[in-house]
């Protein structure tokens, strides 16, 4: 009996060690198989390359806004690459918005491997490019965070407030979600390296917020979005879609509240 207990304890310790060591493989699922923008029916989107502060070469898709329209800085989720967001990007561009979509390190044609600190540096590089090279006023920027990218967008908003912060399927923190997903791992939240603790940071965001969430989302349950929204400062709005899961929003469900928000905030002024 004691031998079996000893083996069980040893096996459990090994399991926890493996989860700790390979947790970033569980968190990030990048795809490097990406074509040029025109292959995704985005002929007017330009592919450029920036460098993060640590020298990492980053792939960015760029499109200029129509005169008088704001620019979306898009921070994507934890899987695939920019090409998988092509339909959404097309909807943004078709409605006059500018676009800067960074491919995090390790995703698409970007160098390196993903981590929380690394993704923040990639976002910094994109914002710096928008402000310093394109000379877009900070209040004419929209930070759009999708799923994992919601944590990136929230962090950026605490540092340099945009004209609008828009979050899709946002979580409170990765450590909280990890504890929910791995209840058999004692102290799972304390093993997480990349925490993306948006709930602790959202009180320091003083930009208008629009939060979108699907009621049927089981990847990031609705309660995460609701708790984050409750802790956020005004002005804020939450849109809940009853029949939406984690990644099946229609373009209209994304674009309509976006357009409504920018008009209300006076961010569109067509020339």
- Strand order in the largest sheet: 2-3-6-4-7-8-9-10
Unreliable spans are none
Distance between the termini: 80 Å
CATH fold group = Rossmann fold
What proportion of the residues form beta strands (DSSP E)?
15-25%
Number of distinct beta strands: 10
Q: With helices defined by DSSP (H or I, 4 residues minimum), what is the helix count?
A: 10
Helical content stands at: 25-40%
Q: Which structural class matches the secondary elements? A: alpha/beta
Which whole number gives the mean pLDDT? 92
Shape, principal axes of CA atoms: globular
Can you name the CATH architecture?
3-Layer(aba) Sandwich
- CATH homologous superfamily (4th level) name: Alpha/Beta hydrolase fold, catalytic domain
Oligomer: single chain
Computed over alpha carbons, the radius of gyration is 19 Å
Task: Please characterize this protein's 3D structure.
The protein has one domain: Rossmann fold, CATH 3.40.50. It is α/β, with parallel strands linked by helices. The chain starts with a helix and ends in a 7-residue tail after the last helix. Helix 3 (86-94) packs parallel to helix 10 (251-264) and helix 4 (116-133) packs across helix 5. The strands form 2 sheets. It has an 8-stranded mixed β-sheet, with helices on both faces. It has a two-stranded parallel sheet with strand order 1-5. The protein has helices at 2-21, 23-27, 86-94, 116-133, 148-159, 174-181, 188-191, 198-201, 222-231, 251-264; strands at residues 29-30, 46-51, 57-63, 71-75, 79-80, 98-103, 141-146, 164-168, 209-214, 236-241. The protein contains 10 helices and 10 strands.
